[in-house]
Amino acid sequence: MKPIFNLSLYLVLDPDLCGGEQGMVATALAALAAVAGGVTIVQLRAPKWKKRQWVSAAFALKAALDPLNIPLIINDHIDVALLVDAAGVHVGQQDIAPEMARQLIGPNKILGLSTSNAGQMAAVPLDIVDYIGVGPVFATGTKLDASPVIGLEEFALLMQIKSLPAVAIGGIGLGRVAALRAAGADGVAVVSAICGQANPQQAAQALRLEGEISDV
Amino acid sequence: MKPIFNLSLYLVLDPDLCGGEQGMVATALAALAAVAGGVTIVQLRAPKWKKRQWVSAAFALKAALDPLNIPLIINDHIDVALLVDAAGVHVGQQDIAPEMARQLIGPNKILGLSTSNAGQMAAVPLDIVDYIGVGPVFATGTKLDASPVIGLEEFALLMQIKSLPAVAIGGIGLGRVAALRAAGADGVAVVSAICGQANPQQAAQALRLEGEISDV
User: What NCBIfam families does the entry give (chains A, B) (predicted)?
Assistant: First the structure.
């Protein structure tokens, strides 16, 4: 059965920002422990890493997240996801195509796809993909090969044509969550707004609270 | 059933040196067409590529190689190998560990592992790995993260302790093949000695001939 997932606060763990494997596990656990609700889903993304390190970190994260029922999503590397039995996989437009990714992971894993414009959103195979990432909404320093910035106004238009749950990504931090949720995002994905923050628990709680307010 | 493989002349295709996907297919086909025997096994290695491009090139190479019964080996990305049903996978010391790679590919695929010293060779799980790459024997410009150069003398010592078929790699070109085979290598792996050569067919034939002489 496919795991239930909640995109509200989607933490993308970057080892450079999070202090490597140990830092990522610690950050994820802290960001989950927020009293008023923390991150709801976690992705591992380490574009500079070799795969032996990916596997090690993915096993460590899975061991930390499974007891809390928080899905672990593996970016790009489906072989790593299969090995550690992750909850799902996230692919970009230049990664393995969604149809092929689904073929590899089977029906019971979550599959996310990055999109950055209306054309890419219209091309998403709705019976294959479970959620889309939409971005970068704002300028970001944490993904060097990102597409052109969308902006909040265009993002709101994209949310009106979406056919799948959508998480906003790119330059998102405190003060930007409410507007994105109001524009129609089902959640926000953050990297540096939690990774590398002095208090990841507090950071997660504040982001989550800002999102919840807009849900009312 | 696991495909039979012959390491005699192992062509590693690099898109930068081979003119991208089309150039790689053309090079492989030319290098196979040598009258006196050409390359015997082909690996795709494209560390700079995103995976959608890997998949496209791997399908194209497989279509070209299958009719000739030449095994296609995919470097590092086991997800790509599974998708295109490649003959095998090659992993390095920092890639997915051989035991885990075997778990993903099952018993009927070829599994190769890079080694560069006696300690790494002694640690190879013999019931899991099918062949080892040993190198870099000589200095190479085509693999930027290569280990320290072994040299021919040390390579000959390593060949005396090997327990699996071994292919020499690293800086190998015409004039170096006979000595490596005489030292005990079951074959030689080349990149630039065929990729980017004006006449890949002739280059492959000359390399193969030099290897065969040492077999007598």
Answer: thiE
ipTM confidence: 0.92
What residue in B sits closest to A56 (Cα-Cα)?
A: B96
How many angstroms separate the CA atoms of B109 and B98, rounded?
A: 12
Nearest by CB to A50, from B55, B95, B104: name it: B95
Q: Count how many pairs of residues, chain A against chain B, have C-beta atoms within 8 Å.
A: 56
Two tokens, residue B179: 């000595």
The C-alpha torsion from B43 through B46 and B49 to B54, rounded to 10°, is 0
- The answer to whether B84 and B62 are in contact (CB under 8 A) is yes
Q: How crowded is residue A56: how many other Cβ atoms within 10 Å of its Cβ? A: 14
Domains, in order of start, for chain A: 9-215 (3.20.20.70)
Min Cα distance B55 → chain A (Å) is 7
Question: How far is the C-alpha of B199 from the C-alpha of B202, rounded, in Å?
Answer: 5
Task: Kindly list the distances between the CA atom of residue B66 and the CA atoms of B8, B60, B70, in Å, as whole numbers in the listed order.
Answer: 18, 10, 6
Amino acid type, A52: R
A121-136 per-position pLDDT tens digit: 999 999 999 999 999 9
